[in-house]
Amino acid sequence: MLRYIIRRLLLMIPTLLGITLIVQLFIMITPGDPARFIAGNEVTEEEVEALRVEMGLRDPFLVRYGNYISNILSGNFGISYRTKRPVVTEIAQRFPYSLMLVFISMIIAMGIGIPIGIYAATHQYSWKDNLAILASLFCVSMPSFWFALLLIQFLCVRLGWLPTSGVNSWLGWILPSVTLALAYAASIARQMRSNLLEVVRQDYITTARAKGQSERKVLYRHALKNAIIPIIQIVGGIFGAAMGGSMISEVIFSLPGLGSYTIAALNARDYPVIQTSVLILSTWFAIILLLIDIAFAIVDPRIRVQYMKKRARTRKEVSA
Description:
Layout: H1 2-29, H2 34-39, H3 45-55, H4 61-73, H5 87-122, H6 127-141, H7 144-158, H8 174-199, H9 203-210, H10 215-227, H11 229-245, H12 247-252, H13 258-268, H14 271-299, H15 301-319
């Protein structure tokens, strides 16, 4: 397992390098002039051009990319064009807000999705099952920004129960977390239903029923613990992707998180912030995928057995 983890960590290096290369390429071809944004409209074109040269915007692509990688390796992630502060400092202040939003959203998504999936599977082909499927399809298809605006209109403007923006109290986390969690809860519910229906058709479930065990005992002792294993991959993937997907909730509800920070940087062509934010989000997602694989190996012994067989077969081929 340790060797596998080390190999996966080493494979992250070319992956992240490829991502930085793509981001740098998009920055080169995207229209916009950060030098003009910084200098304002009251300076001459010669002064703006001098600022472009100072910022390295006139350097060739490979030179700019090489300088960027060199700065990263030395721990220098740049200074924000807008705030004139180190990018790492600002991201360190904002990242906990995004992490808290994603964490709360995942708890809500699992708390809603898993029970609904179990309930739908245990009432297959009934009107309750059809209603659960219809609700899941609606939640997955519904734009999150539209749902967020509906929540603000009814719960904040008309009823006045919750604040419209900010996280000055715990109430401020409710609407953005629910907005982010809704579509993920629907995906988890659909996957949970599918997994459970597949598991209950297995031979060992039939054997457990033949022994006279109650349906509730068969479900929770035998079927559920095997049906929940694939949910780890779904939840882990969602947990990684939700960090980037939280941008809409952060912008609508004015959360000072990494998502809203990145959106503001995109509008201002703040290249150091854009590059560092994408790099952090990519690293986060890669680490989450690694943790998912490790969790799979822990909860499912069959994966460890397959890995050991593969290693033994490889050693045999090498020795032959």
